[in-house]
Amino acid sequence: MALLSPSRRVRRTPFSEGVEAQGIKAYTVYNRMLLPTMFASVEEDYHHLKQAVQVWDVSCERQVQVQGPDALRLIQFLTPRDLGKISPNRCMYVPVTDQGGGMLNDPVLVQAGPETYWISIADSDLLMWVNAVAACNGFDVTVSEPDVSPLGVQGPKSDDLMAQVFGDKVRDLTFFGCDRFKFNGFDFLIARSGYSKQGGFEIYVEGSERGMPLWHALFEAGKPLDVRAGGPNLIERIESGLLSYGNDMTSDNSPLECGLGKFVSASQLGTCFGGRAMREELEAGSAQMIRALEIEGKAVPTCDRAWPLRADGEIVGQVTSATWSPDFATNVAIGMVAATHWNGGRALKVDTPDGPREARVRHGFWN
Amino acid sequence: MALLSPSRRVRRTPFSEGVEAQGIKAYTVYNRMLLPTMFASVEEDYHHLKQAVQVWDVSCERQVQVQGPDALRLIQFLTPRDLGKISPNRCMYVPVTDQGGGMLNDPVLVQAGPETYWISIADSDLLMWVNAVAACNGFDVTVSEPDVSPLGVQGPKSDDLMAQVFGDKVRDLTFFGCDRFKFNGFDFLIARSGYSKQGGFEIYVEGSERGMPLWHALFEAGKPLDVRAGGPNLIERIESGLLSYGNDMTSDNSPLECGLGKFVSASQLGTCFGGRAMREELEAGSAQMIRALEIEGKAVPTCDRAWPLRADGEIVGQVTSATWSPDFATNVAIGMVAATHWNGGRALKVDTPDGPREARVRHGFWN
Q1: Does domain B63-144 have CATH number 3.30.70.1400?
Q2: N or C terminus: fewer CB in 10 A for chain A?
Q3: Which positions are tagged coiled coil (chains A, B) (predicted)?
Q4: What is the average pLDDT value for chain A, to the nearest integer?
Q5: How close is the nearest chain B Cα to the Cα of A126, in Å?
Q6: C-alpha distances in angstroms, B25 versus A208, B37, B192, B335?
Q7: How many Cβ contacts (< 8 angstroms) between chains A and B?
Q8: Taking the alpha carbons of A162, A168, A174, A178 in that order, is the dihedral positive or negative?
Q9: Do A304 and B10 touch (CB under 8 A)?
Q10: What integer pLDDT is reported at residue A297 of this predicted model?
């Protein structure tokens, strides 16, 4: 692995000081911001995440704030998902599509206040898309990137840690439920969400100056729980089937191909960007779809590019994320597979940099 | 420095194999793609760049391709610069602004064919902005990111190297002139441009499969010239006053604040995005502007965040890029300085992570 050159352009976060003090070893860059990927080692971080509790600097999940009388109407225009159930107590996962139905981002939508919404984004400058749509159509909104940085608390002991800092009421949040909870005199917006399936929360930290006091409080309260710093873990996210925009899907893919059909509402396809393409795909059936795959043999090398999937020599898809799973003692993978070959149990071959391997389409993910 | 975690999302380039073989030590991530920043060391790369010739993998300067009958009309709408002089033999530096006049990107515009333009971008997903503007206004264009990766040849011996691979006619290109030159039976679009002031070219490599054959040919022909792999060099770019989007300017800044007033045409301000804000700024005068600054004392630490500039204790600007210059035996820096304090010679103080230092506004850059 090569080093990452520091510069202002690759932005630090309100928690960078804490991340450094915890011994960060590797980052990735996400929305032009530092995202910690490794503290002890990817495997050690993984085992710890599944047993204890971690604090994650996921500031890079930047907010596109849409504020004003037309805010919800504009956002509804951007996604095929019906936003009827959004509320200050309920956040929603909302695929955002372009005019051809390609995925531009797969953010979480949060109602942060009256006529104020945060689109909490994956790795693409969705601000540009939303701002241009607003500017060109005369919506009465202001679009901006506010000083709001999510802090993740993930792992089976998340509830215990959060209850100590924010009070026992935080335990009552249901999945994707959200509410405001007080710490140091400020009401933080907190959702039961996050980029692992080990349970946990995301705290939307408004105001960089509130970052480190909260970080320190979580580490202080978490000592008996063996709290550590962490970040999205490659092994755990593949086992759990958590898709990564830019890795497992790009603007070349529709929400249906990404297995996100349940977030595509027929009622929206007449008005949202790409609705026509998605309706045609619904009628004709998708040509390919995201699948869990198992790759045989010893640990695969680092998957830093798409690996072709073959059947009888012909390309029928590609693997986009893959790694060795210690808990399942196999290589776990995510890939896009043609309709002709996507059934669970199907045997395929995958071209890895080390040579071809046997692979098998699974019926589902692991966690 | 921490490591950079590899993943498909942080994209490899058509030249990554060559970059690795040349002993890459550090990258940055630019447009979600790998950009080499260091081979031997930043200082050794710098001395070599100023004496010989380097091949730079600047694939991360992605192209936003706008194709169709309305292509030029759409692009003119995006920039305050009058595009009247664009031609297949002349590329142009074009600030792109949002509705408030903030900089969204500072790309180079290239005419790649009939009704076909490449906006060769700095580090932001301008594709989203252009695509949304096209979609919302019914322009008859197709907007895409084609498989086109620029390869830089930079340094005083660039002409000699390029002439060997593409023929002597390439020497006739003037600054920002461009034309097509044959290699291996294909006509490559080449411009006399690039992100150094040591002279050089950018080759727009169409089709990833053409990348490594060209890379190898340049290294083979360049042996007597001591050709090496390189990349944008922090020291040289500050000495030369080459601004970096995301470092020295963001969407918070207007083109005028960035010292790009000569690319703002009064004739366009009635129609382009942000024209009204720019006109008001032209009338009222800019509140701040980019300046070269010298920082006294020993080598400054890594500048990975904005450093406040002060006069009599009050903040009057910020330094956004800074490093020690071996050739000028001082710390060279780029910053944004308030109108009240931007005159050449003005003494200021800068808050570095090592403590306050004396700084001085310069009349111009070094190279």
Answers
A1: yes
A2: N
A3: none
A4: 98
A5: 7
A6: 32, 8, 28, 28
A7: 160
A8: negative
A9: yes
A10: 97
B132 and A132 in contact by Cβ < 8 A? yes
Could you tell me where the beta strands, DSSP code E, fall in A85-177? Answer: 92-93, 96-97, 103-105, 108-113, 116-120, 142-144, 148-154
Contact call for A32 and B2, based on CB within 8 A: no
pLDDT at residue A128, rounded to an integer: 98
Q: Mention the CATH class of domain B16-61+147-238.
A: alpha beta
For residue A247, list chain B residues with Cβ-Cβ distance below 8 A. 7-9
State the DSSP H helix or E strand holding residue B349, giving kind and residue range, or none if neither. Answer: strand B347-352
Amino acid code (one letter) for B259: G
Mean pLDDT by runs of 10 across the 367 residues of chain B is: 97 98 98 98 98 98 98 98 97 97 98 97 98 95 98 98 98 98 98 98 98 98 98 98 98 98 97 98 98 98 98 98 98 98 98 97 96
Q: Six-digit token pair at B133?
A: 């503007």
Tell me which residue of A36, A6, A64 sits closest to A151, measured CA to CA.
A36
Which residues 6+ apart lie within 8 Å of B75 measured at CB? B66, B83, B94, B109, B117, B119
Scanning A74-103 for CB atoms below 8 A from B yields 98-99
Closest by Cα among A239, A25, A131 to B98:
A131
pLDDT at B27: 98
Q: Is A119 part of the contact surface with chain B (CB cutoff 8 Å)?
A: no
Q: Which residues pair with B229 in a beta bridge?
A: B55
Instruction: Find the helix packing angle between A126-137 and B126-137, rounded to 10°.
Output: 30
Write down the CATH number for the domain with range B287-367.
2.40.30.110
Structure tokens at A244: 């990564």
**pLDDT at residue B305, as a whole number:** 98
d(CA A57, CA B15): 32
Q: Over the range B54-70, which residues count as b (16 or more CB within 10 Å of their CB) and which as e? A: bbbbbbbbbbbbbbbeb
**CA–CA distance, B246 with B229 (Å, rounded to integer):** 24
**Nearest chain A CA: its distance from B102 CA (Å):** 12
Domain ranges of chain A: 16-61+147-238, 63-144, 287-367
Provide the angle, in degrees to the nearest 10, between the axes of the packed helices B71-78 and B126-137.
120
CA angle A30, A62, B150 (to 5 degrees): 40
Pairing of strands A148-154, A108-113: unpaired
Q: What is the pTM for the complete model shown?
A: 0.97
DSSP reduced 3-state for A199: coil
Q: Is the ipTM of this complex over 0.95?
A: yes
Task: Give yes or no for a contact between A125 and B124, defined as CB atoms under 8 angstroms apart.
Answer: yes
Q: What Cα–Cα distance (Å) separates residue A219 from each residue in A223, B7, B192?
A: 6, 29, 54
Contact B249, B96 (CB under 8 A): no
Give A-chain residues touching B302 at CB under 8 angstroms.
6
Nearest C-alpha in A relative to B29: A29
The whole-number average pLDDT for the span A337-341 is 98
Q: What's the pLDDT at A10? A: 98
pLDDT of residue B141: 98
